[in-house]
Amino acid sequence: MGKTIVIHGRAIYGGHAEGEALVSEMPLMGWGNVKPNEGCTVERNHPLYKVCFKDKILVFPYMRGSGGFVIYADSKKFGMNPAAMLVTESISVIVTMAMRLKQPVLTDFDIDPMTVIETGDYVEVNGDEGCVIVHKKSDSEEDV
Fold first, then answer.
1. What is the pLDDT of residue 53?
2. For residues 72 and 21, which has the higher predicted lDDT (pLDDT)?
3. Whose CA, among 20, 44, 90, 138, lies 20 to 30 Å from 4?
4. 66 is an active site residue
5. What long-range pairs does 92-100 form, CB within 8 A, spacing at least 24?
């Protein structure tokens, strides 16, 4: 593993989770653009089109669209939910989704996670303390 970075934020929903990061540079859209039974976005031309977010730490800048974003929480019914979500800009719909998902969701970070976390990094989320520990993936063979 590479270096470790600690980020502090505000919990929308607490709890603990850890796993591999899945980062979306583009915002995520809900209604009609997510398949909760498959655990993926199906928005065409999105970089994460049909990339499974099951058990991942889903990192994204913000959601776009309407209240349909709560559909992401339905992925839990199918066991296809992300382990946690880190969202740079939060609005009330994210709060509603987090309450339905019942997994750690954090926002309002001291360091923008979009500038620190990359897909494949190992991330520990402590929503109870508002702490995110990022273990950077190895940058070279020497780190292995």
1. 94
2. 21
3. 90
4. yes
5. 93/30, 93/63, 93/66, 93/67, 93/69, 94/12, 94/63, 94/69, 95/12, 96/67, 96/70, 97/69, 97/70, 97/72, 97/73, 98/12, 98/13, 98/73, 99/13, 100/70, 100/73, 100/74, 100/76
Beta strands across the sheet bearing 105-107: 4-8, 131-135, 122-126, 16-23, 57-60, 84-87, 105-107, 10-13
Entry pTM: 0.90
pLDDT for the residue 139: 63
24, 66, 75, 90: which one is catalytic?
Answer: 66
Name the nearest CA neighbour of 40 among 25, 26, 56. 56
What was the pLDDT predicted at 142?
Answer: 43
